[in-house]
Amino acid sequence: MTENQFETLKDKIRQRISGEGSLSVEAYMELCLTDPDFGYYVTRDPLGKPGDFITAPEISQMFGEVIGAWCAHMWVELGQPSEFALVEPGPGRGTLMNDVLRTANLLPGFQEAARVFLIEASPVLQVQQKSRLEAFADHIEWRDEFSTLPAMPMIMIANEFVDALPIRQLQRSATGWAERGVGIDDDGKLTWATLDGPDLEPLVPPSLRKLGENTIIEISPQRNGVAAMIGQHLNQHAGAALIIDYGYDSVMPGNSFQAVKSHEFADPLEDPGNADLTAHVDFSSMAKAASAAGGKVWGPLPQGTFLQELGITPRADQIMAANPDRKERIGRDLARLTASDQMGMLFKAMVIASPNLPSPAPFPPAENRDSE
Ligand SMILES: C[S@@+](CC[C@H](N)C(=O)[O-])C[C@H]1O[C@@H](n2cnc3c(N)ncnc32)[C@H](O)[C@@H]1O
Question: Does the Cβ of 90 fall within 6 Å of ligand 1?
Answer without folding.
Answer: yes
